[in-house]
């Protein structure tokens, strides 16, 4: 068991947790000079105007603590976007908080709501930050295992998992790693199940702008913000990292009704308090000047998805649908039958392309023989990876 040094006489609060698979695979890729399609980040630059605005604001006074909730122009830009896209009105004073990345927003919402003994429903494959956050609060996880190839929620199963102890349901749409996108019908089913309960919803919507027009929702992202009935019990989290090619800036936001935001901010102010000031100002300028950038993102990534899929045509990988996000799942059973973790190590070391094993997202470790590629890369990177993968 993973324990702290004996002298401290203190067991680990998170004995099961090791280094995340994303760090492990990126490190392995670097060690072996492999093309890194594992961790989800772009290998191209953010928009020049956005960079220019950060420098501008550093030279024009935005160097001290900004307001705890985030700078007003950025909260205004976020509120404007939520209203334009989802018809949802959020008050910038009491309902929108800028955070240090989506991971922090998710952690803060979980910390603000979950008490020892509470149950939290998650859908697996599940993003790796949720479970440790729930465990640290003493919550119990109820896992709904989504099944390949579609990875769609089975609403009967969700209904059966809900109990009087259910405090929260966490959903992620568009979904990492599967690229599944929830439909309006899914949202209606969810609304039906939580009606007349005290269940809080936590929506991880970091890929909200990457929903492909040829998918089941025809490019429409079904945000928790859209249905008033859901919005009133939801934390809606999105990340500027995914939208503006700035994953390293770690800036995101959480929109939630005033009562939930009040609890959220009680945790936020003693954990993070404020987020990088010049970057917030720059994002506000950029969102005001170029509202179309986020709107064009789905088409930008659809072209990359299609390019990558074309690269893999004729390979021995079988590609699953990708309706959103910048991830592509692939089945490798025509290549060999080893566990997915071993397969990605072999692929990285012997074949020069790094990917993520899907079992790393599944708490019971179920192995569907699937790996995840990130196609948020330049065409040259995708073409070079394609050449190597066709030879596998
Ligand atoms: C589903 C999901 N949620 C949250 C995050 C974290 O976002 P951030 O980098 O803003 O913390 C990621 C990043 O990969 C993600 O894929």
How would you concisely characterize the structure shown here?
With 392 residues, this protein is an alpha/beta fold. Helices cover 39% and strands 14% of the residues. It contains 15 helices and 13 strands.
Description:
There is one protein chain. The chain has helices at residues 21-31, 48-59, 72-86, 102-113, 130-136, 155-161, 184-194, 228-231, 240-243, 258-271, 277-289, 292-295, 297-312, 340-351, 379-390, and strands at 35-36, 96-99, 119-124, 140-145, 166-172, 200-204, 234-239, 252-255, 318-319, 327-331, 353-354, 356-357, 370-374. α4 (102-113) runs parallel beside α5 (130-136) and α13 (297-312) runs parallel beside α15 (379-390). The longest helix has 16 residues, at 297-312. The chain is of the alpha/beta class and 392 residues long. It is built from 15 helices and 13 strands. Helices cover 39% and strands 14% of the residues. It has a 7-stranded mixed β-sheet with strand order 2-8-7-6-5-3-4, with helices on both faces. The protein has a 4-stranded antiparallel β-sheet with strand order 9-10-13-12. A two-stranded parallel ribbon has the order 1-11. Pyridoxal-5'-phosphate is lined by residues 40, 101-103, 127, 172, 176, 204, 206, 239, 241, 247, 250, 252. Pyridoxal-5'-phosphate binds next to α4.
Percent helix among the residues? 25-40%
Gap between N and C termini: 37 Å
The portion of residues forming beta strands comes to: 5-15%
Tell me the series of helices and strands, N- to C-terminal. Answer: HEHHEHEHEHEHEHEHEHHHHEEHEEEH
Supply the number of helical segments: 15
Regions with little confidence, pLDDT below 50 for 5+ residues: none
Q: Work out the number of β strands.
A: 13
Strand arrangement, major sheet: 2-8-7-6-5-3-4
Small molecules (ligands, ions, cofactors) in the structure: pyridoxal-5'-phosphate
Query: Cα-atom Rg, whole angstroms?
Result: 21 Å
- Class by helix and strand content? alpha/beta
Overall average residue pLDDT:
96
The outline comes out as: globular
The major beta sheet can be summarized as:
7 strands, mixed
């Amino acid at each position: 068991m993973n324990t702290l040094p004996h002298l401290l006489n203190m067991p680990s609060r998170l004995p099961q947790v090791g280094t995340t698979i994303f760090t492990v695979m990126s490190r392995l890729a670097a060690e072996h000079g492999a093309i890194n399609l594992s961790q989800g980040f772009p290998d191209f630059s953010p928009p020049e105007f956005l960079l220019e605005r950060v420098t501008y604001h550093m030279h024009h006074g935005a160097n001290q603590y900004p307001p705890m909730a985030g700078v007003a122009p950025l909260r205004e830009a976020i509120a404007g976007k939520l209203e334009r896209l989802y018809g949802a009105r959020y008050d910038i004073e009491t309902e929108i908080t800028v955070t240090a990345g989506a991971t922090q927003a998710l952690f803060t919402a979980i910390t603000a709501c979950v008490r020892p003994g509470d149950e939290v429903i998650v859908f697996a494959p599940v993003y790796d930050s949720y479970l440790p956050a729930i465990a640290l609060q003493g919550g119990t996880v109820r896992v709904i295992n989504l099944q390949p190839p579609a990875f769609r929620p089975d609403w009967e199963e969700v209904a059966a998992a809900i109990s009087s102890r259910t405090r929260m349901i966490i959903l992620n749409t568009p979904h990492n790693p599967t690229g599944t996108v929830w439909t309006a019908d899914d949202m209606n089913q969810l609304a039906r199940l939580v009606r007349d309960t005290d269940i809080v919803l936590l929506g991880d919507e970091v890929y909200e702008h990457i929903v492909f027009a040829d998918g089941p929702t025809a490019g429409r992202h079904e945000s928790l913000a859209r249905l008033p009935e859901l919005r009133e019990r939801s934390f809606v989290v999105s990340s500027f990292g995914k939208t503006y090619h700035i994953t390293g800036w770690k800036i995101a936001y959480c929109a939630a009704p005033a009562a939930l935001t009040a609890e959220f901010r009680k945790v936020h102010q003693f954990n993070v308090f404020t987020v990088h000031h010049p970057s917030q100002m720059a994002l506000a300028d950029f969102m005001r000047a170029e509202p179309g950038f986020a709107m064009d993102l789905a088409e930008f990534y659809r072209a990359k998805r299609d390019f990558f899929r074309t690269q893999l045509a004729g390979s021995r990988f079988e590609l699953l649908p990708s309706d959103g996000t910048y991830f592509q799942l692939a089945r490798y059973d025509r290549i060999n039958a080893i566990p997915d973790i071993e397969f990605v190590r072999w692929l990285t070391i012997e074949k020069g392309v790094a990917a993520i094993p899907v079992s790393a997202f599944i708490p019971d470790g179920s192995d569907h023989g699937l790996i995840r590629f990130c196609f948020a890369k330049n065409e040259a990177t995708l073409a070079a990876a394609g050449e190597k993968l066709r030879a596998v």
